[in-house]
Amino acid sequence: MFVLSNTLSAIATVLGSLLNIYFWIVIISAVLTWVKPDPYNPIVRTLRVLTEPVFYRVRKWLPFTYMSGLDFSPIVVLLAIELVNRIVVASLYQYALSMS
Known about the structure:
By secondary structure, this protein is mainly alpha-helical. The protein is 81% helix and 4% strand. The chain has one domain (2-99). Helix 1 (2-35) runs antiparallel to helix 3 (73-99) and helix 2 (42-61) packs across helix 3.
């Protein structure tokens, strides 16, 4: 049973780390929209490729996130990341601890 417990704990750790990295990618991408960087910069293009599909889906499902020229989809994505982090990752950790 300890192998399954350790595996679940490792999955929770990796998932939490990935969510944390994506959280910061979304924040950096949102901040970059304020300064209008060079669109041909490889870093800017990478950030756009990583975030725009998610932002597009949020804008499509929740059209009120884009009002008066302001895009609130990064805030919705950040809230969703935090929600998954606090519910799914925390539950995985607790379940792994209860198995040991």
